[in-house]
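Just curious: can you write whichever protein you like plus the matching structure tokens?

***
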Amino acid sequence: MTAATDTERASIRCPHCGQRILLDEAIAHQLAEPMRAGWEAELRQAIGSEVRSAYARDLQEQRERTDELTSQLKERDEKIKELRDGEAQLLRDRRKLEDDKDDLEREKERMRDDIRKQEREAADKRAAERAADDLLRARGEFQEKLAHQQDESETRARQLEEQLRRVNAHLEEVQRKSGIGSRQQEGVARQDVFAQELRERFPDDLISVTGVGKRGPDVTQLVRLGRLECGVILWECKRAAVWGPEWPRKLAGEVRDAGARFGVIVSDVLSSGTDGSGQVGDVWACDYAHAWHLAAGLRQAIIAVHRHETANAARTGIAEKVYDYIATGGFESRYKAMEQAIDRIAAELDTDQRASQQRWKRLEKLVTELRNQGLDGIVLDILGLGGEIPPAARADLPGETTLSLTTS
């Protein structure tokens, strides 16, 4: 019904778009146009006022917000500046503390170097003193030994002079009695003098001289220890211009026949390669200057062998051998040497102990002086300048210094 009514209503076509427009709508539109223009003007004015008012409010709020943000930014900048200043101060303080710690470390190292230097100087001084003492002791021993050797040389010279005097006197006596100075008679006189010298040097031994024209050695020495007969030494006294190569064989045979321990040829000239004394074949040979030293050595060897044989006469087991070792003298000499070495070591240890105690006291006194005048003074100087020792560095300080800091 509405569609039919709309069709029946009068309408016109729009010359622009060709669309049909109802006449009542066109009239209404024409009538409403002036009113619409007034409404739109009022509406635009109202909207403009509202927009301007809203814009003014928003602008004011934005300004207030901007001022607030500006104030906050300013406060934050001030806080940032304060934090940066504080950080810079902390860095400066940290660098100062590190510098102070480095100074303390350097001072400690310097003190350690000084202590080590003093220890080295003390050790060098002690070594020099010990070397000087050793030198003085060695010099004294050398002087004593030299004086002893001089005394022995003088005694030996006097003995040789006396021996030469007796030989010359005896030769003169023999020459007076016989009227000739044959070499054979001089040899007989020399063997008598040699036998007499053996009697004087070894009064416990039995010395015998073989008569002229009899077979056997010139002098026979029976070595005795108290009443014990230990062994025999056969002596041949020669006075010839050249060495006789048959002498050692002849004397060795006499040694075997007599059951003697040693045979010795005493001659002015010796075999080639023998200087003073030495062994030639199965016997010994020496000149008259070395005869007495060789006699003493051979005599001690015979006594030691006799002791050994006596000790082993009725012993064959380990216990017997140990007893033999103790009884024959080897144990005694080793024990005495060991006891003397222990005494020297004990004396050396006692000397070192006293020196160490004195050195310890000196170093302890020196450390105390360094601590009182060095570290404590440095710390007090730092505190007097307004500084502060950090806990990490304070922990490395000695106990008395830390206590003084805590008390302060």
About this structure: DSSP finds nine helices and eight strands in the chain. The CA atoms of residues 32 and 328 lie 164 Å apart.
